Amino acid sequence: MADSLNCNLESLSPLQLFERVTEQGEKVRALKAGKAPKDEIDAAVRMLLSLKLSYKTTTGQDYQAGLPPKDLVLINNGTTKEEDEDLVDPWNVQTSNAKGVDYDKLIVRFGSSKIDTDLINRIERATGQKPHHFLRRGIFFSHRDMDQVLDAYENKKSFYLYTGRGPSSQAMHVGHLIPFMFTKWLQEVFDVPLVIQLTDDEKYLWKDMTVEKAYEYAKENAKDIIACGFDINKTFIFSDLDYLGASPGFYKNIVKVQKHVTFNQVKGIFGFTDSDCIGKISFPAIQAAPSFSSSFPQIFNGKENIQCLIPCAIDQDPYFRMTRDVAPRIGQPKPALLHSVFFPALQGAQTKMSASDPNSSIFLTDTPKQIKTKINKHAFSGGRDTIEEHRKYGGNCDVDVSFMYLTFFLEDDDRLEHLKQAYTSGELLTGELKKVLIETMQPLVAAHQERRKQVTDEVVKQFMTPRKLAFEF
């Protein structure tokens, strides 16, 4: 039996081992609190000690509650050169690979689960809808506990969606649309409430801007989010600077999280230093709190057992690994997650875009002419140096940014596959592929701009007013 246990533990990632130790510790505490028989408690304690030993053997670190393995933000691509490492944290994404981050290795290092065909088929059965092309194409590629969400949904138990936006500039770019496009689809096919957090407080703490400017950006970004087509009767958008002072439930959850996470733990998870302001150190609790339904009593009628599903880019996962560790200790369900890949900069997939670099992406304020110029001038090409070489050897879709963008925004699977084959064979030239992207992005951005014009300050106020939504709990 012990050999079987050790064999099973050897197959676990450091983070999975960490979570097993945490869960076993909770079990021991529950058995002791419930005055379980001594032999049952002793067996659970022996299991806990065995798990802790396996964790130390695997990681070289003693287990510390709430402090995952220290190297989770660095993903080594099998080399020893520091410059060849992928760096992924909530503020930085860097890789030396022109194809972008190695997501399979990221799944292993973070301890999440791959979204496979079986899960996609199960989502289709549960909703009765064709899976979104973001799922079909692996753009949302990783998850935590999505199977539990589906278990509950199939048993007529509701959940809610939570996603967010850090308003660092007045204009959003097309990459910012990805989580909102997918969240809108999830909301429609599952028919569940949605809360959207605007972390204007975070941007004030991290950026060189005033509180007033951060709040102004939050309201402007809300207009772009609303323009994605969210249902006002099913969606609550909130600014941290606003909502924290208006919701005792929200603040109570923040304080509970703060009490159960130490300074050493947030340093280990987020890389904070002694010179960081205390606002940064306490902020993770604010991003964690919307994961709990009791933060929104007006929506959930005070119920604390409604599970949350969070669609987000995987660089936000450290916040929610922390949240999932804390949740059982404050009597809350762990949030589930769906992770997306990073949207590449026009210059290549080595980094994610920056809102401060106007040429790194296509912005939602760009004119058709600006879109055409940016794509033609800045979109990194997977084509050959000469037409003759391209015709002979073909282009590389794995590094070509125009093709990457079409993977996100061209919904026709057959046409996308035809373009891939034509470009790879050399039949389609780089300029012709860029032309397809221009013709895809110009109407998409123009349509968004038209919808945004209809979003008045009054509409924003309605979305951001705490209120009951069209659901009964």
TrEMBL record:
Gene3D superfamilies cross-referenced by the UniProt entry: HUPs, S15/NS1, RNA-binding, Tyrosyl-Transfer RNA Synthetase
Ribosomal protein keyword on record: no
Protein encoded by which gene: Wars
InterPro entries documented for this protein: aa-tRNA-synth_I_CS (IPR001412), aa-tRNA-synth_Ic (IPR002305), Rossmann-like_a/b/a_fold (IPR014729), Trp-tRNA-ligase (IPR002306), uS15_NS1_RNA-bd_sf (IPR009068), WHEP-TRS_dom (IPR000738)
Pfam assignment, any one: tRNA-synt_1b
Protein family according to the UniProt entry: Belongs to the class-I aminoacyl-tRNA synthetase family.
One MF annotation (Gene Ontology) recorded for this entry: tryptophan-tRNA ligase activity
EC number(s) given by UniProt: 6.1.1.2
Protein name listed in UniProt: Tryptophan--tRNA ligase, cytoplasmic
Keyword Ligase tagged: yes
Keywords: Aminoacyl-tRNA synthetase, ATP-binding, Ligase, Nucleotide-binding, Phosphoprotein, Protein biosynthesis
